[in-house]
Amino acid sequence: MAGNGIRIAMVAGEASGDLLASHLIKALKQHLPDATFYGIGGPKMSAQGFDAWWPLEKLAVRGYVEVLKHYREITGIRRQLKKRLLEEKPDVFIGVDAPDFNLDLERGLKNKGIPAIHYVSPSIWAWRGKRIHKIARSVSRMLCLFPFEPALYEAKGVPVDYVGHPVADMVPLEINRQSAREKLNLPLEAPIFAFLPGSRQSELEYMADTFIETAKRIYARMPKALFLVPLATRETRLLFETAIYRHQALDVPFTLLFGHSHDAMAAADTVLVASGTATLEAALLKRPMAIAYRMAPFSWRLMKRMKYQPWVGLPNILAGQFVVPEFLQDDATPDNLAQALLNLQTDKLLRSRIEDEFTRIHLQLRQNTAEKAAAAILSVLGRRPVRADDVPAAV
């Protein structure tokens, strides 16, 4: 069934949301080929024909202190967007993650009769659980990436679907380390560590020094080790390079990459990763890891008070136990991280157990996410998915 005239407004607030939304747009176009998509988004969404009224970089701010600095600009964008959407009256609004921006917007649209779907549950199971009351008032439907989330919404009467995680669909169940090393022209037998200090400049400002000092300690004890550092932008690369000079680490064999985070982790034996989506990607690639994170002290004190679980890394949350070590704020020292990574590198039995658990998680999350999410949105629109037998045979 064609989607003639269907207008779909969307907001994605950072790179991970841009990826999720781009897959969703592509899936929806299979069922609604004439639909139009517009709002706030990134380059991957634009590549699928999305009309970005504002770029997602305007919203890609993390941490309480950092958000406060940009508060007036962000709220101004939301006010302008809400006004324009109420004038445009799209058939549905899809907020992709970015709950602090999207939930207030969704409530305003929902109250005016525009269905509001939120794609990616906020982490109410980890901290700020009382948000579920605001969510219930704001959304017409919630699309969840993790299997333990729907029960939380069902208990509050919020329509919900578990759609799985799109990265689990993208990543093969088995990863060939040798092929990944050949692709990056790396030695096949060397001990290789992938270091992922974050995708934002603010993360590099807190993590780069610690990661470099960690590499120095590992290299002193394992002189054949190599270190891959995928970085998202020229700005983050410059921050890391400057930190290398500052710590007099020019002799440490770092290989800095533009992007290629999956390739780097696939080629590595062991990964050091800043907490976030990259921890899940490392798990899906079946790589033992240590998780580290540092942020502004004020932001850390607030977050620490509001969290409910002993874990912050997605692999541990999904497993319900400490499968891999986490080092947060003052515990994220070079000595602690270096020792944890060396343990993971050399303990074969531990590595095997971690890889088995990550395979179980991968199978659980692999749900053909984009199609499931598209089907849920079509149901809100009162449309049925196009099937192969709906398409007339060529004459």
UniProtKB/TrEMBL annotation:
Pfam families: LpxB. GO terms for molecular function: lipid-A-disaccharide synthase activity; phospholipid binding. It comes from the Bacteria. SUPFAM superfamilies: UDP-Glycosyltransferase/glycogen phosphorylase. Its EC number is 2.4.1.182. One of its GO terms (biological process) is lipid A biosynthetic process. It catalyses: a lipid X + a UDP-2-N,3-O-bis[(3R)-3-hydroxyacyl]-alpha-D-glucosamine = a lipid A disaccharide + UDP + H(+). GO terms for cellular component: membrane. It is an enzyme of class 2 (transferase). InterPro entries: Glyco_trans_19 (IPR003835). Keywords: Glycosyltransferase, Lipid A biosynthesis, Lipid biosynthesis, Lipid metabolism, Transferase. Pathway: Bacterial outer membrane biogenesis; LPS lipid A biosynthesis. Belongs to the LpxB family. HAMAP family: LpxB (MF_00392). Condensation of UDP-2,3-diacylglucosamine and 2,3-diacylglucosamine-1-phosphate to form lipid A disaccharide, a precursor of lipid A, a phosphorylated glycolipid that anchors the lipopolysaccharide to the outer membrane of the cell. This is Lipid-A-disaccharide synthase.
